[in-house]
Write a structure and sequence with these properties.
heterodimer, A: about 250 residues, alpha/beta, globular, B: alpha/beta, Glutaconate Coenzyme A-transferase, 13 strands, about 15% helix, CoA_trans_fam_I (chain A), CoA transferase subunit A (chain A), transferase activity (chain A), transferase (chain A)
């Protein structure tokens, strides 16, 4: 990166070069860490045939915020890789579901811990690993397993991404990040798994050195673009979520 | 037949928690376990999203929007709480440090198999952290209504739905009582008030074994 600033003035510029066919990871878990502003910019940018990697496809709560389900509705998604490809309550129908049922979008369902570890492995230079999770289930059918010290494990491959879109609390100009409370979730793992990490930041970007090196949650090595989130209503901020009415 | 309500089902399992346990509660009825008064036993609640040591859900206006548990509820933190990322959170799970996970389910089998991520004919599913927890926690407790809305049993010889993990469930609380998968059937550990052994057997799709 040299001396080039990591700070971008707006979300539109920050996502402008995401190409058709990119594998894009979206941080966040039940609100905190979700890159609502970058997702909204990607909806406007219009890249197609995306593979979207996240915990869920979104759309299960009100108020609805920009999510993968909206990218699906916008015709931008070829495949999702998620720990939920159906609502947790079977009577709910996710916005994503009709597109999946019509075969317009592919889905790969991955246990949440396996998803996290596949991202971690990609960011750590590990091509694959064995896990006890999902052994003996439909997900393991026809796949490679191995008995190690008397227990059966399932082979899982690393999950590298082209782009990670995440949200953080504080950043300095070197790209060092801090997350606040449960905002951290998948965000550092996705950043490490991605070639390009784009961050929407809640606090104004600090000068390099303003964050104590001992208190950095994700070093700037893994962070390429920072966009400060403007105040509402221009910027999107987390609100208290409510489950959709039954 | 009277039986237990949802909080009583949760209470019965929560009373099994031992001092010092690290506990992971699934969404729905299992979250009610944290309401149970279990005296001065010290329990550390772990959530999949890396929140270790969370406390009660906070009312609107008092919540911190940066903090949710695995069910997306705005919780508080107890003294001694810590935050980790998702890979470390599931490292805690896979390395066997969760003493018990309490989950909901559609079906439980006498073998200890259970199913809670996919309904018959459903495309896709909702696994979340259930498979990691089920495969790796020291104990798996299940809370579920004893029968479906149509009155069909959920405690079975074998699961009809795709399983979440095999042979892991050790204790099941339903509206009719407390049961332990025991291979060829379910051992009856306790019946809820007003529930007879015969009535429980009629509602169960596997043999019930006395005491």
């Amino acid at each position: 990166m040299g001396q080039r600033s990591k700070v971008f003035g707006n979300f539109t510029e920050a996502v402008a070069d995401i190409p058709d066919g990119a594998a894009v990871a979206f941080g966040g878990f039940a609100g905190p860490g979700t890159p609502y502003n970058l997702t909204r910019a990607l909806l406007a940018q219009g890249a197609k045939r995306l593979t979207c990697i996240a915990n869920t496809t979104g759309g299960a709560h009100q108020p609805r915020m920009p999510d993968i389900g909206m990218l699906v509705e916008n015709g931008q998604v070829a495949k999702v890789i998620c720990a939920f490809t159906a609502a947790t309550r079977p009577t709910d129908v996710l916005p994503f579901t009709p597109f999946y049922e019509r075969g317009e979008v592919e889905a790969e369902l991955v246990p949440q811990g396996t998803l996290a570890e596949r991202l971690r492995a990609a960011g750590a230079g590990i091509p694959a690993f064995y896990t006890p999770t999902a052994v003996g289930t439909e997900l393991a059918e026809g796949r490679e397993t191995r008995v190690i010290h008397g227990r059966e494990y399932l082979l899982e491959y690393a999950l590298p991404c082209d782009v990670a879109l995440i949200r953080a609390w504080r950043a300095d100009a070197a790209g060092n990040l801090q997350f606040r409370l449960s905002q951290r979730n998948f965000c550092p793992l996705m950043a490490m798994a991605a070639r390009t990490t784009i961050v929407e930041v809640e606090e104004p970007v600090l000068p390099a050195g303003a964050i104590d090196p001992d208190q950095v949650h994700l070093p700037g090595i893994f962070v390429h673009r920072l966009v400060p989130i403007p105040p509402a209503p221009e910027g999107l901020w987390t609100t208290r979520r409510q489950e959709r009415a039954r | 037949m009277s039986g237990w309500d949802r909080q009583q089902m949760a209470d019965r399992l929560a009373r099994e928690f031992q001092d010092g346990w690290i506990v992971n509660l699934g969404v729905g009825i299992p979250t009610l376990c944290s309401n149970t008064d279990i005296g001065d036993r010290d329990i550390l609640y772990h959530a999949e999203n890396g929140v270790i040591g969370y406390g009660p859900v906070l009312p609107a206006g008092q919540e911190d929007l940066h903090l949710v548990n695995a069910g997306g509820q705005n919780v508080s933190l107890n003294p001694g709480a810590a935050i980790v990322h998702h890979a470390d959170s599931f490292g805690i799970i896979r390395s066997g440090r969760i003493d018990v996970t309490v989950m909901g389910a559609y079906e439980v089998a006498a073998s200890g198999d259970f199913a809670n991520w996919k309904l018959a004919g459903q495309l896709g599913g909702g696994i979340g952290g259930a498979m990691d927890l089920a495969a790796c926690a020291q104990r798996v407790f299940i809370i579920l209504e004893h029968t479906t809305r149509k009155g069909e049993p959920r405690l079975l010889r074998q699961c009809s739905l795709p399983v979440t993990a095999r042979g892991v469930v050790t204790l099941v609380a339903t509206n009719l009582g407390l049961f332990a998968p025991a291979g060829e059937g379910f051992a009856v550990r306790e019946l809820a008030p007003g529930v007879s052994f015969e009535a429980a057997q009629t509602a169960t799709g596997a043999p019930l074994l006395p005491g």
